[in-house]
Amino acid sequence: MALSCQKDSYLKELNSKVVCCEKAQCQMIINGKKSKINGFEVILEDTILFPEGGGQPYDLGTLNDIPVLKVTRRGDKAVHFTETDLEVSKDVHIKVDWHRRFDHMQQHTGQHLISALAESIFNFSTTSWNLGEKTSFIELDTPEIKDKDLQQLEDTVNEKILAGLSVTPQLFYDKDDPEWKKASCRGLPADHVGPIRVVRIEDVDNNLCCGTHLSSLSHLQCIKLLGGEKGKKGKTNLVFVAGKRVLDYLGRSYSVEKALTPILNGPLDKQVELADKAIKGLKASQKSCTNLLRDLAVMEARLFNMMVDKPPLYSIHRKEGDNEYMNIIATEIEDDTPCFLTTGEEKGSGMFLLCGPPQFLTQAQKKVMELLEGKGACSGGRLRGKANKLSNRSEVEKYLLNLLSES
Ligand SMILES: [Zn+2]
Known about the structure:
Elements: H1 4-7, E1 13-30, E2 33-44, E3 61-63, E4 66-74, E5 77-82, E6 91-96, H2 98-122, E7 126-130, E8 136-140, H3 147-162, E9 167-172, H4 178-181, E10 196-201, E11 205-208, E12 223-230, E13 236-242, H5 244-264, H6 268-306, E14 314-318, H7 323-332, E15 339-344, E16 350-355, H8 358-372, E17 375-379, E18 382-387, H9 393-406
Helix pairs in contact: 2-3, 5-6, 6-7, 8-9
Zinc ion is lined by residues 54, 108, 112, 199, 209, 211, 213.
């Protein structure tokens, strides 16, 4: 038996009866994490909440105002998952989350139309498709789609929408009925029971499908083919948006354009060029900063080397410094003078380097790591690593000077 949502996909409410309600667990993704929820599996005499199938995700909605968290297919039955139990044999009022469902109907019917025309015009067969959160894609059995072919496909798809062709489901009650076998399909699922359903787009396509569809292509409003992306081996993922998603996408794109115009100081058609120029400029500046930082390290070490009365410890902190900056100083400082060098946020975390005679390093190592809450290792006569408490920098300095005065 077909479900009411398959007979009339435009039904928003329905009364039915609870056939069974059993305790169960359901795996859901909540805030990106897999979680197991305790609840109930509810089967009704009939439903307008579509379970997953044909690439279309499940519906959401309510049963007597109790939220349905998931709907799955088991044979010809839809299994509703709720956190509250429902009494068996009692009447139940079903409401579908129409906003979500109509969006699914638009993307799903859009996919049928694009797949049918990609096949008939270019001989690109559809191997799978994905209805995503913001955009969807159709996996086509072709290594690439040329820009002009993409344009032709988009134009033809939208001409069919403009013509307002009808979309009708046809039911075949017998698996051996030769008529349904004429319809294009990828075969029946192993657990298929009940009538076979073929969805027909007037003059365009017949396709075996269990999903919910629009009754007319005019309800699709329009389709935008966003482009072809490299898919699995030798395939292309054709990314698209249909119906209200086209307007949503345009709205988001316009917001980005509006925000970028003052930043890049130019209109939409110049923004890629301007962004490219800005990034290249930034990379050149970064390279020049790095070179200057290297030169600065050499100069700082030389200045110290030229001092007549050198202090017993060379200590310096440079926020913008890096490991290479510290290595250069450690190499350039003469006479085995101990160095304590740090980079990063003065009150936060950064990098450190400590060097000097082997005995000094051995003595100082433990305490320095402790004060800096550091993580690191000693190699080649240098102790270096990450410092999590640079606010203790002056403490370390004091400790090191004290250690040096004792030796
Ligand atoms: Zn379908």
